[in-house]
Amino acid sequence: MSVTWQRWVLVGVIGLMGCRTTGTAVREDGKKPRQELQFDPVEVTADLDLEKLNDEELFAGGTSAFAAEDFKQAARYFGRLVDFHPESRHRREALYNAGLAHQRLKEWEEAYHRFSELADAEKGTGDALDAAFRVAETQYHLERYDDAAKVLATLANRQDVPVGRRMEARVQQGVCELEAGHSEQAEGTLRKAVSDYEALSDKDEVEDYFPAQAHFFMGEIYRLHYEDVKLDPARGTDKLAEDLNYKAELLLSAQGHYLRSIRVGNGYWATAAGAQIGAMYENLYDHMVHTQAPPELNAEEAQVYRQELRKKIRVLLTKSINIYERTLEAAERIGSQNAFVDKTRESLRKVRELLLADADAEGDAPPPPEPDTAPKPHS
Hints:
This protein is an all-alpha fold. The protein has 15 helices and 2 strands.
C-alpha cells in the first residue's frame, strides 16, 4: 500500500468521525462514568463515472483529455489512477501528468502535492528531477519563496545536472530570494549566475532566457533601491541635492543591468528591460516635478527654482519616449507580444501627452530627441 493510498484512507476515516462531543453519561453499575461521543454525519461521495475504469482506461482517458487541453478532465483521470491504483505501471507518469494538469489550471496547491511525491531535488533524474523544478515553481506561485529558493539552491549545486538546468535553477533561486525580501542574498546569487554564464566556453549550452533574466532582476534590485530613496525638500537644499544625485546613480545602475539584459538578445526580457528603463525615467521626472521647493527659498526664488528644474528635467521624458519607441520597434520586429509590450505602448502614449502638455504650459517647443545610443533588443 503506497503512502498516497494510506493518506487517502486515513482522511476518509477521520472525515467520517466528525468533531463534536457531548456531555458525560453515568454507567448503570455506578462505576466510573464513561465518555460518550456523538459525531455529525458526513456525506462521502465518489467519482462514480471513473470508479468502473481500470488503470489502463484511466491512463488513456487522462492522456486523451490532456492532448485536447481539457486539463480538468485530465486531472480527474490521472488523479484517480494515482490514488486508487498504487501498483499500476502508469502511476509515476500519471502522478507527473496530474501535476501538470493542475499546473495548467493554476491549481498550485494540488500541483504541489502531486509533484512533491515524485520529486527528488538531491539525487533525482528524469521525472524526479523535472518534478523538483516543478515543486519550486508551485511554491513560488504559492508565495513560499524561501522554500522554493532552498529547493532551487540544491538543484543549482548539483554537478551531475546539465549546466543549462543548473543555470535555470540558480537564476530562479535569485528571483525567489528577491521576492522573499532578501535583496543582498538575491544579488549574490544572480551575480554568481551571470559569472558562471560568462565563464562558459560554449554559451549555447544555456538558453539565453536565463542570463537575460538574471541581468533583468539585477536591474530590479537597483530599481527597488531607487524607489526607496525619497526626495524630501523639508530636509534642505543640500540634502535634497544629495538624495537626488543618489537616486540618479541608482537609476543608472539599474539601467546598466537592464541594458545588459537587452544585449543578451532574448526577446522577452529585452522587451521587459526596455519597458522598465523608460518607466524609471518617467518616474524620476514625476518625482522631480512634484517635489516642493526647499523651504528656505522665498516665493520668487521658489518660482525660479521650479521653472529651471522643469526645463532641465524635461529631457527625462524625451529619454523615456526614445526608449519606449525603440522597445516597441524591436517587439514588432521579433513578433513579441506580452504584458510588457502592452504596458510600453500605453506608457508611450501617456508620456507623449505629458511632454506636449508640459511644453504648452511653458510656451516652449518640446526638446528634440537625444541621439539613441542604447543597444536595441533583437531576436
